[in-house]
Amino acid sequence: MRKKTETSLCVAFMELLRKYPFPKITIQKIAEQCGVNRQTFYYYYDNIYDLMARAFEYELLRESRMDQETSWEAAMERFLYWMKNNRIIIKNMLVNVESSYMRRAIYPVVRLSMNCTCSPCPEAGEQETENEEFLRHFLVIGITQYILEWIESDYKESVDEVIRKLYLVIKKIYE
């Protein structure tokens, strides 16, 4: 039941985001759309920004199925096409939400794509594992920012070009 309610809140938020500007979406509207009360919302989420990050991740993974890919490029391609195809939602959030919240929403999705290829060696020592974790975190932050700038440029570069450029950076680091 818990998972069903969480999912229902995510879906309701994304549906409302397709219809209304972000500032017009209230916790009350989200709760009403799901048939729950405001207290139920707060049982699952601290605030609307917490829901936004989770809903974005849920919607993206559900719609793009990027988590089913085994290569970074394929996962990133699905992610970027989803972003481009849902530009109404993305622009709505970019215009109305502080960039730190957008980074917080995009970061876990980019991180998931990095898990496809960039993982530490099983025999790596603790120091190497820490270094790998630092590199992955650094890359995810950089890729997240690059994607936000790509969106702000109104998707000026093609998805293939974005992936090519990001892959160059990843390749240099992991060679």
TrEMBL record:
Protein name: TetR/AcrR family transcriptional regulator
Binding region for DNA: 26-45
Leader sequence residues: none
SUPFAM superfamilies for the chain: Homeodomain-like
UniProt domain HTH tetR-type: residue ranges: 3-63
Species per Swiss-Prot/TrEMBL record: Candidatus Anaerobutyricum stercoripullorum
InterPro entries: Homeodomain-like_sf, HTH-type_Tx_Regulator, HTH_TetR, TetR_C_Firmicutes
PANTHER family named in the record: ACREF/ENVCD OPERON REPRESSOR-RELATED (PTHR43479), TETR-FAMILY TRANSCRIPTIONAL REGULATOR (PTHR43479:SF7)
Keywords from the named record: DNA-binding
GO MF terms held by the record: DNA binding
Pfam families reported in the protein's UniProt record: TetR_C_8 (PF14278), TetR_N (PF00440)
Keyword set includes DNA-binding: yes
